[in-house]
Amino acid sequence: MSYAPAHHFGICLRKPKKLSTILGHHNKYYNWGRKMKRIILVFTLLIMTAILTASILEEARAIKLWLDSPFSTTVLEAERDAKLIEWQNLKKGEFETTAQFEQRQREAQSRVRAINSDYAQRIRDAQSENTRMKDNLRIRLTDLLNESRETVASKGSLGAYNADKQYFNLSTTQKEFKIVVPIDNAPSVKDSFGRYQIKLIRQINEELEWDYLEARLEGPLGVFSSTDKAPTLMAVTQRASFLPPDLSAQVSFSESSGNNILDAEETATITLNVNNTGQGNANMLKANFRLLNAPGISFSQQIYFGEVKPGENVSKTLQLIAGMDTRDGEAELKIVFEEQNGFPPNSQVLKFQTAAIRAPDLYISDVAIDDASGNYRIEPGEQVKITARIHNRGQGASRNLSARVLLGNDVFPLGDSATSFNIGTLKPGEYKDIVFDIVTARTAKDLDIKIDLIDSRSKFSKRNQALQLAFNRVEQTADQLVIKGQSQHIAVSSAPSLSIDIEENIPQRAQTPNPKRWGVVIGIENYRNVSSVRFARRDAEYMKDYFVSVLGIAEENIYVAIDEDASLGTLKSIFDESGWLSKNAGRQDNEVFIYFSGHGVPAPDGKDAYLLPYDGNPNYAANSAYDLDLLYRNLGKMESQHITFFLDSCFSGANRENEIILADARPVFIAFNPKAKGSNLSVFSASGGSQISSSYAQMQHGLFSYFLMKGLGGEADLNNDNKITQAELDTYLKDKVSVQARRMGREQDPELQSSDPARTIVSW
User: Fold this and answer.
1) How far, in Å, CA of 184 to CA of 705, rounded?
2) Which of 5, 53, 440, 469 fits as disulfide partner to 444, beta carbons 3.0 to 4.6 Å?
């Protein structure tokens, strides 16, 4: 050991070891996460300052300050409390049922427990890490105390000699010592004291002060030591050897619907399994998440694993909650792990599909009555039980659906009959009946009953759904409703309803589709600007089935437009000279069938007729409707072998319930149906020019459409030769439709325009 020059307050400075030595292998013991680094930041800075000043004493002071500091979890507790606030003190929403609120409370309690458990583990790990760090720092402090022992020069004076015990009293600036000198040498040492050097051995103690342990006189007669002797150096605890973990991670994706797509308003679960096949512990392991190309999806940005022991497999889950604004696309979840000692698993990337919200389509599919008189009619002053069937024909499920009955003037709920109903979830294709009792005033003139269908997401609510009931009109009865199994198919076109013969067991006349046959099916029940055409949607949906099964038209050869899809633009794109029909079916060997169910409107002078599209205005038909004469001309120009047009519409300016749809509320009749143009065009019309095309309430279809489908199904084969000609179908329709219309108190006589009545429509 080298000696410093002699002086009263001499201090020998030595350059301390690197930071890894101070804290005990930096990469192994001191790789804290961001949160823990904030906790010890001030102490780390002190230690770094000690290193830069290169002083053992200052380094020891910095370590001592750390060791004497209490452990604090303030940062982690504040972070935990911030997350808990979101799930505490929940308030019941105005439009939230008690059951829904209680469920939300249970979910919140579960979330609170999970957060508390997670942070309790984080705090335990932080305490454990704090203890491990302090143990290493204590070892380093012992090293520093041992390393601080040094010999320094000093000055002093020699006192009286104790001949009995043979020592001199030596007074130094730092301490009094007894220097042992044999009595034979004592006189010479005293006489030549100025030629002797005083050397002191000192060491920093645990209070970080210098202890002067031993003194020596070095001179002509040799070295004489004090009675105080420097003790043996403290033993240093051997640092434990470090064994690294060996971590691997596996990631899996699951969601509730089972289609491996995260749909809007759905929650997916990401499962992370971490396996440690190494010999050492993994400490403070965490997974950080980043989600790309996935707007509207909420998730926690980090999951904490904590300690993973050798041979242990730890599983954690992450929830991805898709909101209403989730889009169609492919999301990418990036997972980056952190481990305290720098041994994380490899990063992972998980790609999965996302899908935008699938909207429910809620409507009143059927209405039935049970009237007190039993004559199937609602009469003023009568008590009536009404059954309304609510159906979801959309792609998505309703959420917290409720129905509220709205009663017009002079219509009252009977007794304590409910007018509000909680329906909950209606999956695609499902339906539910609500039943309520009413009584009307004897002086009532109108039967105005509507239903609000209210989804918890207002954009999917359907309000003011009219039941289209009327006084003194035959209505279907409750016993006609047949409860069938709920469909498992998505986007069912209509809810199972009446025991209607034309809808059951549709005959399969065509064993294979005929590629030379083409079809157009248009049904407009709910108009934007005028009252609805009762059952028109149902007409079109089942007529499409007859086109496929009976007429043998391939589904891909049929253009279907229903309600809002049947705009003026759509009609033009289909029927104009260069439209879809002409381009696809306008060849000589092709045969075309067209069906239209909806409003027809006359021109103000009664000389022209128009098909009213969904967005049309009957008072401005020339500008917003499709000219029927133009349609006939365009069809006549096509080179198709033959075109058959089934037209379930009238041109009286009234709907199927004889309600005027024109602004001045008076009928304007055309004197005749517009004439078909072209020898290849045949037109079956539902009624004469001045007649109403009626609905058939008992069978939930238009009167003409019901018997059209019944006839095509086989009943129009009047001579039983297994084929139906135009003439046979015309005879059948005129008989059946006219007779049933007269029973309903109306006149309705179908018409046929054809240059080839003997032409076969269907054969088997």
Assistant:
1) 143
2) 440
